C-alpha cells in the first residue's frame, strides 16, 4: 500500500493582481488586497496524487495533505479535503514565521517524519508530492531541500504518471526535452510541473471538509532544527518594482524598415548592454580604492551618499586613517553633518569604516551542466558572469563538472573564462541523479571552499542547487536575473553577493543576501547573463576530483529520454504569435512557420511560436502555446504579434517582452497602442514580404 | 461511528444571493435542528450579484433585527450601509441638457400616483455584492452551510407526488468535445426535504421546475439588461456628486427604449455609472454598452467622472414583467410546486416603478423560511409560502405596479409613462416576449463612442475552465444564417462580453469562457435560438463591489 503526502501552500492570487495591489513607494505587495488561494501547482500535485492512487487501484492508500502557514491557511487544506484528501495537517506557529526556503523545508521535513511515524506506522512506501514551485516564492527549492533533509531523492518537473509492471513511471521535464523515470528507492519526492486535470470540489466532501477539525501542529510538536528568521540562510534586503517599459507605438509602412528594426533589436541590445556594463562601475575591493573612506560600492544608495558626506568631511579635516578619528573630531563632524544625520547614524558609519576585509574568501564557481554530450549554453553564460565577479574580487573562476567523461570539456570551459576545472568522473554519473550528484558536488565544494557557486536555473540546476546548499547549510537564491558584488558596510559585510530576482510572477523584484552561510549560492535564469568571447589561448588547470559513490547510491532509473518535439520552450529570445486574425489553422501554421524559419536563419537564435486564447479556441494550435493571463506569461526580447487584436488578457502575458511588433489589418486594433512598432495590413501579405526583406539584406 | 451522509440535507437553497441567504439564515434561526445548505455557482459570496443598488431600509432592518438586534450597529453595517439617499435626481436627458423631473415625480407622489414610487429618499445605496457577502457571513454564523462553486443541472422530480426529491449537480470534467477527462466527476445528487429556488433572474433550475411541474405565467416574462461600471473619480468630483445622491436619467441616448442611465455613489471616491435598457429594444445593432458610453459623454455625467478610472464592471438582467409574470402552479396557484418554492428575482418580484426588487427578494426569502418553519408537511411548502406572500407587503406593492412595464411596452415612453399614472385602472396588456421586438431599425447614436468590450470583460474578472463544453447552446445553425441576412446577428453586438463571433461564416459562442452570466443572449436572440445553460461551478464573473 502506497501513501501520498501532498504539500500544499496558500498563496496570494496573483492572477487577480492589479497596480493598486502594490505600495507605490516600496513596490511591495499589499497582501490584504489579494485573495488567498491554493498554489496552482499544488492543486495539480493533489490531482497527481489522486491519479497515482487510482492507477494503483489501491484505495486503501492514504492521501495526507500538509501545509505550513498562518492559521487561515487551513483553507487550502479544506480545498484538498473537499476533493480527495483523507487527512489534513496544518503546521502553524509564530515561531515558524519569517522563514526562507531552508527554514520552510526543515520544519516540513520534520512534520513529514511525524506523519510517517504516527499515521503511516513507519511505512517507507510513500510519495511526497508537491507543486514544482509556488507562485509567490517562485524558487522551486523547498521540495528538493525537504528531500535533502530526509536523505531521499527527488524527481522534479513531473508532468505525467503511468503504472507499468507494478511500479510508477513518471514523465518529467529535463533541459531540452523530457524523460521517463522510476524511483529505485522509496520514499521519494515528486514535484509536479504541469498536470492538466486539477480536481473539482465535491458537494459531500466539501460539507465533510467544513465539518472536519483540521489537525494543527506547532513548532514544539515537530522539533525542527532550523525555523523562522533564525533558521534562515537568506535575507531579503530590498524589494522594488521592476522597470516598466514604455512602448513607442510607432507605425511602420515600409517592410524593409521593419526588417531592419528586427535585425537591430538584437544588434542594439548587445551594444547597449555592452556600454551599460562599462558604465556600471565594476566593484573594487576596499584595499584597492584610492580613498580609505571610499564607500561608494555600498548596496544602498542612501548609505553611499551618507558615506560620501562623511568622506568629504574627514578629508577637509585632513584625516587619512580611521585611527586618527578622535572623540573630539567626531563631535565636530557630528555638528557639521547635523543636517544630514544624527549622532547615532554617524557613529554607525564610523564603526563601519573600520571594517575593510571581505566577508567571504575563496573562488567564484560555476556548476556546469551537460546535456547530450555537450555543456549547455547557460553554463558558459554563468562563466561570463563568474569572470566578472571574480575579477573584481581578485579571485579565480572555478567550474565544477560531473559526468561519465567530462574532462574533455575543460578546454572549452577555460576558453570561456574559467581558471580551474574541478572534474568529477564516474560511469555512475552518466545521467543526473539527485543523490549521486548531491554527494559529489557537496564533497568537492567542501574540499575547495569557494565563496560563490552559481548554477543555471534549469530543471537540473533547480534540483541540484537546493540539495547541495541544504546539505552544506548554505543559503541559496533562485532564478537570479542580476548578480552584483556590493558592500553592506553598516552590517560589517564587505564584498558580498547581492542576488536580485523577480518574485510574484515578475510583479516585484527582490534583492537577497546570503546569511549564516560559508558559501553564497544562487541559480541564474538562462539567457540573462552574457557569455564572454571564447579565448583559446587562455590558460587553466583541470583538477580531477574523486567520486565517492557506489551503485547503491543511484536513486532513480531513467527508462527513456525524449527529444523536445511537441514541447514548448517560451524561454527564447523571439516569439512569433498568431491570433484569430489568421483565419484558419492552415494559414496560421504556414505563416508562423515561415516567419519563424526566416527569423531563425537571419538572427541565428531560437524562435518559438505562440498563440492567443482565441486562436487556441479556434483550434489553430494546441493549448500549450497559449500566451496571456490564462496561458503562459512570456518575456522574449522580441515579440511579433500576427493578427492579434491586443485584448488585455493577452497583453498581460507579454508585458515583460522587450520589443513588440504587431501586424493587423484593423487600424483600430488595441494592440497598436501597446506595441513598439506596427504595420497595418493583412498578415498574409506582410509575412511573405517580411521574409523576403529579411533574407535580402543579410 | 456512523458515517454521516453528506448528500442529504433538510433545506436546500439554490442561489446564495440576498433572497436565498435571507431564507437560509431565517429558517436556520427558527429551526436550528434543520440542516440548511445554500449552494451557488459563483466562486465566492457576492461574485454573481450585481445591482444598482438602492435598497429600502425596512425589509433589510426586519431581516437584520430578526437575526441579531446588534447587526445594525456592527462593523459590517458601518461599511456597507453608510450611504442613504438624500437627493433624488430624476432627469430627462436630451443630447445637450438634463431636464429635471424631480418636481413632477414629487408632485405625482403627493397626489398618490403610482409613479411617485420612483423616489428613493431614505433608501440605502449599497453594493449588492458586499451586501451578499455580509448575508453569507450572517447565515454562516447561525450554522447555515453556504457552499460556492456548485452548479445545479436539474431538479430530481417525482411526477407522482409533484415534489422534488432533490437536485442533481452538473457533471464536471467533460472535455470540450464531450470526452470524460481524467478528473471527471459525475454530478452528485443532493436529497432535500425542502428546496428554495433563489437563483436570481431567469434561473435555469426555475426553468426546469416550470417545465417539470408545468407552471404557468399569466403574462410573458419581460427583461432588461443593466451594464454597469464602477468609476474611481477625484475626491473633488466625488464631493460634488455627494454620497447621498442617486441619479436616474431617462431619454438620451435611449429615448425610444424603456430604460435610462443611473449614477450611484460608492465608497473610495467611486461612482457607479450604469445603463438599464428593456430587452424589447428594436434596433438590430444596439448594444447597451454603446448607450452607456454615450451616456458617460453627456455633459451632466461627464462632469463627475471625467478622467476617472474604471475599476470594476459587470452586466446582469432584471426581471421586469412584474406580478403577472410570476410563475405559478396552474392548479394551486403556488409560486413553485409541492416542496419547491421560488423566491426573489427568480420569481420576478421586482417592482418596476420603483426599479427595485432587493427588498422583495429579502422579504420573500424570509417568508419562505417561515413557511418551512410553520409547516410539518413539506409538500405543502409552496402553497403555504404563496399564501403568506400574497398577504405580505411584497405582493401588495407588486400589484400596484402590475401594469406599468407592459403599458410602456405597449405605448412607448411618451404615451406610456403618463398613461401609467392611471395604474391599475388600465387593462392588463399582454405584450410579446422581448426577442420578438427586433426590427431592421438601427441605433441612432451608433458609433458615437467605441466601447472596449475586452476591457469591460477583464474588469469583471471572469474565469471559466476553458476546456469545458460551451454552456451556450446555439440550437439551430441554419437559423443563424437567416439571422445574419435579416438582422446581422445581433448577439455579436449586444453580448456585453463579446462571446459571440462569426467565424468563417458560422456563428459560434467563440468566447464562452468570457460569459458574464447576464443571460441576455437567451432572451434577446431574435430567433430565440440560444439556450443559456449553467457552466461548471466556480466560473463566471467575480464581482467584489458591484
- The CATH superfamily of the largest domain in chain A appears as HUPs
Number of domains of chain B: 3
Query: Which CATH top level class of the largest domain in chain B fits?
Result: Alpha Beta
Radius of gyration of chain A: 27 Å
CATH class of the largest domain in chain A: Alpha Beta
Count all strands of chain B and give the number.
Answer: 25
Which architecture of the largest domain in chain B does the CATH hierarchy give at level 2? 3-Layer(bba) Sandwich
CATH topology of the largest domain in chain A: Rossmann fold
Q: Which whole number gives the mean pLDDT of chain B?
A: 93
Helix content of chain A: 25-40%
Profile the largest sheet of chain A: 10 strands, mixed
Tell me which oligomeric state these chains represent: heterodimer
Strand fraction of chain B equals: 15-25%
Number of domains of chain A: 4
Number of helices of chain B: 17
Shape of chain A: globular
Low-confidence stretches of chain A: 274-278
What does this entry look like structurally?
The complex is a heterodimer of chains A (698) and B (546). By secondary structure, chain A is α/β, with parallel strands linked by helices. Chain A folds into 4 domains: 230 residues, HUPs (Rossmann fold), CATH 3.40.50; 151 residues, Rossmann fold (3-Layer(aba) Sandwich), CATH 3.40.50; 62 residues, no CATH class; 196 residues, HUPs (Rossmann fold), CATH 3.40.50. Chain A has 19 helices and 31 strands. About 1% of the residues of chain A have low confidence. With 546 residues, chain B is of the alpha+beta class. Chain B is 30% helix and 23% strand. Chain B is globular and about 70 Å long. At the A-B interface, α5 and α17 of A face β11 and α14 of B.
Amino acid at each position: 500500500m502506497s501513501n501520498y503526502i501532498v504539500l500544499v501552500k496558500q498563496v496570494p492570487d496573483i492572477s487577480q493582481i492589479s497596480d493598486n495591489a502594490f505600495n507605490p513607494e516600496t513596490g511591495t505587495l499589499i497582501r490584504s488586497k489579494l485573495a488567498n488561494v491554493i498554489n496552482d501547482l499544488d492543486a495539480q500535485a493533489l490531482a497527481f496524487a489522486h491519479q497515482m492512487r487510482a492507477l494503483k487501484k489501491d484505495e486503501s492508500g492514504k492521501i495526507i495533505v500538509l501545509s505550513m502557514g498562518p492559521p487561515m491557511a487551513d483553507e487550502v487544506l479544506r480545498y484538498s479535503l473537499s476533493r480527495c484528501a483523507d487527512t489534513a495537517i496544518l503546521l502553524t506557529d509564530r515561531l515558524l514565521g519569517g522563514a526562507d526556503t531552508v527554514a520552510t523545508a526543515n520544519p516540513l521535513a520534520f512534520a513529514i517524519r511525524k506523519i510517517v511515524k504516527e499515521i503511516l506506522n513507519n511505512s517507507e512506501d510513500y510519495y511526497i508530492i508537491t507543486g514544482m514551485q509556488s507562485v509567490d516564492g517562485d524558487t522551486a527549492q523547498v521540495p528538493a531541500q525537504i528531500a535533502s533533509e530526509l536523505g531521499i531523492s527527488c524527481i522534479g518537473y513531473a508532468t505525467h504518471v503511468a503504472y507499468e509492471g507494478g511500479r510508477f513511471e513518471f514523465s518529467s521535464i529535463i533541459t531540452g526535452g523530457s524523460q521517463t523515470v522510476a524511483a529505485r528507492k522509496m520514499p521519494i519526492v515528486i514535484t509536479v510541473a504541469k498536470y492538466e486535470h486539477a480536481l473539482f470540489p465535491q458537494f459531500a466532501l466539501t460539507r465533510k471538509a467544513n465539518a472536519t477539525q483540521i489537525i494543527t501542529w506547532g513548532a514544539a510538536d515537530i522539533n525542527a532544527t532550523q525555523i523562522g528568521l533564525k533558521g534562515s540562510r537568506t535575507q531579503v534586503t530590498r524589494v522594488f518594482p521592476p522597470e516598466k517599459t514604455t512602448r513607442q507605438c510607432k507605425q511602420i509602412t515600409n517592410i524593409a524598415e521593419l526588417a531592419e528594426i528586427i535585425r537591430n533589436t538584437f544588434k542594439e541590445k548587445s551594444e547597449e548592454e555592452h556600454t551599460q556594463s562599462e558604465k556600471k562601475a565594476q566593484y573594487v575591493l576596499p584595499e584597492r580604492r584610492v580613498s580609505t573612506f571610499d564607500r561608494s560600492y555600498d548596496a544602498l544608495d542612501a548609505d553611499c551618499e551618507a558615506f560620501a558626506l562623511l568622506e568629504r568631511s574627514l578629508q577637509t579635516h585632513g584625516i587619512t586613517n580611521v585611527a586618527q578619528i578622535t572623540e573630539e573630531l567626531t563631535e565636530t563632524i557630528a555638528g557639521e553633518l547635523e543636517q544630514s544625520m544624527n549622532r547615532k547614524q554617524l557613529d554607525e558609519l564610523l564603526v563601519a569604516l573600520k571594517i575593510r576585509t571581505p566577508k567571504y574568501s575563496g573562488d567564484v564557481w560555476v556548476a556546469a551542466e551537460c546535456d547530450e554530450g555537450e555543456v549547455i549554453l547557460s553554463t558558459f553564460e554563468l562563466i561570463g558572469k563568474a569572470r566578472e565577479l571574480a575579477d573584481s574580487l581578485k579571485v579565480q573562476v572555478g567550474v565544477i563538472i560531473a559526468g561519465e567523461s567530462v574532462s574533455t570539456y575543460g578546454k572549452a570551459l577555460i576558453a570561456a573564462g574559467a581558471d580551474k576545472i574541478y572534474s568529477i568522473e564516474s560511469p555512475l554519473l552518466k545521467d543526473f541523479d539527485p543523490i549521486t550528484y548531491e554527494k559529489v558536488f557537496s564533497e568537492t565544494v567542501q574540499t575547495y571552499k569557494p565563496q560563490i557557486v552559481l548554477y543555471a536555473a534549469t530543471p537540473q540546476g533547480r534540483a541540484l542547487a537546493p540539495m547541495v546548499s541544504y546539505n552544506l547549510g548554505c543559503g541559496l537564491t533562485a532564478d537570479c536575473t542580476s548578480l552584483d558584488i556590493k558592500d553592506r558596510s553598516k552590517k560589517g559585510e564587505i564584498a558580498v553577493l547581492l542576488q536580485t530576482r523577480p518574485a510574484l510572477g515578475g510583479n516585484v523584484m527582490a534583492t537577497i543576501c546570503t546569511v549564516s552561510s560559508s558559501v553564497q549560492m544562487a541559480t541564474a535564469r538562462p539567457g540573462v547573463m552574457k557569455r564572454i568571447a571564447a579565448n583559446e589561448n587562455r590558460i587553466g588547470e583541470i583538477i580531477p576530483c574523486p567520486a565517492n559513490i557506489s551503485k547503491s547510491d543511484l536513486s532513480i532509473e531513467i527508462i527513456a529520454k525524449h527529444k523536445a518535439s511537441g514541447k514548448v520552450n517560451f524561454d527564447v529570445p523571439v516569439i512569433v504569435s498568431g491570433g484569430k486574425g489568421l483565419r484558419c489553422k492552415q494559414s496560421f501554421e504556414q505563416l508562423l512557420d515561415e516567419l519563424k524559419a526566416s527569423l531563425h536563419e537571419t538572427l541565428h537564435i531560437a524562435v518559438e511560436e505562440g498563440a492567443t486564447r482565441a486562436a487556441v479556441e479556434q483550434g489553430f494550435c494546441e493549448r500549450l502555446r497559449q500566451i496571456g493571463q490564462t496561458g503562459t506569461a512570456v518575456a522574449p526580447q522580441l515579440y511579433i504579434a500576427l493578427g492579434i487584436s491586443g485584448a488585455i488578457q493577452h497583453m498581460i502575458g507579454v508585458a515583460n517582452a522587450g520589443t513588440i511588433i504587431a501586424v493587423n489589418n484593423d487600424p483600430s486594433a488595441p494592440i497598436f497602442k501597446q506595441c513598439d512598432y506596427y504595420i497595418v495590413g493583412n498578415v498574409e501579405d506582410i509575412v511573405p514580404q517580411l521574409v523576403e526583406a529579411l533574407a535580402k539584406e543579410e | 461511528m456512523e458515517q454521516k451522509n453528506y448528500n442529504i440535507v433538510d433545506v436546500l437553497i439554490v442561489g446564495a444571493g440576498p433572497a436565498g441567504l435571507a431564507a437560509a439564515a431565517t429558517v436556520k434561526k427558527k429551526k436550528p435542528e434543520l440542516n440548511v445548505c445554500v449552494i451557488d455557482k459563483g466562486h465566492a459570496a457576492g461574485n454573481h450579484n450585481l445591482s444598482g443598488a438602492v435598497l429600502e431600509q425596512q425589509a433589510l432592518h426586519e431581516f437584520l433585527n430578526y437575526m441579531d438586534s446588534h447587526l445594525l450597529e456592527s462593523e459590517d453595517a458601518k461599511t456597507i450601509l453608510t450611504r442613504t439617499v438624500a437627493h433624488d435626481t430624476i432627469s430627462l436627458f436630451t443630447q445637450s441638457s438634463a431636464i429635471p423631473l424631480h418636481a413632477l415625480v414629487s408632485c405625482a407622489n403627493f397626489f398618490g400616483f403610482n409613479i411617485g414610487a420612483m423616489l428613493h429618499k431614505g433608501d440605502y445605496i449599497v453594493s449588492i455584492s458586499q451586501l451578499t457577502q455580509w448575508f453569507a457571513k450572517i447565515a454562516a454564523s447561525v450554522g447555515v452551510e453556504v457552499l460556492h462553486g456548485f452548479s445545479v443541472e436539474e431538479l430530481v422530480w417525482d411526477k407522482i407526488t409533484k415534489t422534488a426529491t432533490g437536485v442533481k449537480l452538473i457533471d464536471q470534467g467533460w472535455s470540450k468535445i464531450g470526452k470524460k477527462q481524467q478528473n471527471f466527476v459525475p454530478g452528485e445528487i443532493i436529497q432535500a426535504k425542502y428546496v428554495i429556488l433563489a437563483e436570481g433572474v431567469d434561473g435555469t433550475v426555475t426553468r426546469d421546475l416550470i417545465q417539470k411541474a408545468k407552471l404557468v405565467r399569466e403574462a410573458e416574462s419581460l427583461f432588461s439588461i443593466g451594464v454597469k461600471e464602477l468609476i474611481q473619480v477625484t475626491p473633488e468630483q466625488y464631493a460634488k456628486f455627494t454620497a447621498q445622491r442617486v441619479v436616474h436619467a431617462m431619454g438620451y441616448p435611449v429615448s425610444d427604449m424603456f430604460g435610462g442611465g443611473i449614477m450611484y455613489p460608492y465608497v473610495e471616491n467611486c461612482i457607479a455609472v450604469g445603463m438599464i435598457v428593456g430587452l424589447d429594444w428594436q434596433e438590430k445593432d444596439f448594444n447597451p454598452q454603446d448607450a452607456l458610453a454615450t451616456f458617460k459623454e453627456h455633459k451632466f455625467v461627464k462632469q463627475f467622472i471625467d478622467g476617472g478610472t474604471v475599476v470594476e464592471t459587470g452586466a446582469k438582467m432584471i426581471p421586469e414583467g412584474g406580478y403577472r409574470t410570476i410563475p405559478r402552479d396552474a392548479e394551486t396557484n403556488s409560486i413553485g410546486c409541492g416542496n419547491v418554492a421560488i423566491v426573489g428575482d427568480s420569481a420576478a418580484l421586482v417592482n418596476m416603478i420603483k426599479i427595485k426588487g432587493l427588498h422583495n427578494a429579502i422579504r420573500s426569502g424570509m417568508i419562505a423560511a417561515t413557511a418551512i418553519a410553520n409547516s410539518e408537511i413539506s409538500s405543502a411548502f409552496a402553497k403555504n409560502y404563496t399564501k403568506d406572500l400574497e398577504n405580505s407587503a411584497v405582493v401588495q406593492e407588486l400589484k400596484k405596479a402590475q401594469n406599468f412595464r407592459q403599458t410602456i411596452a405597449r405605448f412607448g415612453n411618451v404615451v406610456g409613462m403618463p398613461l401609467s399614472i392611471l395604474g391599475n385602472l388600465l387593462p392588463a396588456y399582454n405584450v410579446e416576449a422581448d426577442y420578438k421586438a427586433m426590427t431592421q431599425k438601427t441605433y441612432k447614436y451608433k458609433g458615437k463612442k467605441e466601447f472596449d468590450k475586452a476591457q469591460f470583460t477583464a474588469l469583471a474578472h471572469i474565469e471559466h475552465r476553458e476546456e469545458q463544453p460551451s454552456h451556450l447552446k446555439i440550437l439551430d445553425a441554419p437559423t443563424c444564417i437567416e439571422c445574419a441576412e435579416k438582422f446581422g446577428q445581433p448577439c455579436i453586438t449586444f453580448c456585453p462580453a463579446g462571446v459571440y463571433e462569426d467565424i468563417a461564416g458560422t456563428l459560434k459562442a467563440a468566447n464562452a469562457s468570457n460569459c458574464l452570466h447576464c443571460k441576455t443572449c437567451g432572451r434577446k436572440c431574435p430567433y430565440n435560438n440560444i439556450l443559456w445553460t449553467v457552466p461548471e461551478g466556480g466560473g463566471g464573473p467575480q464581482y467584489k463591489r458591484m
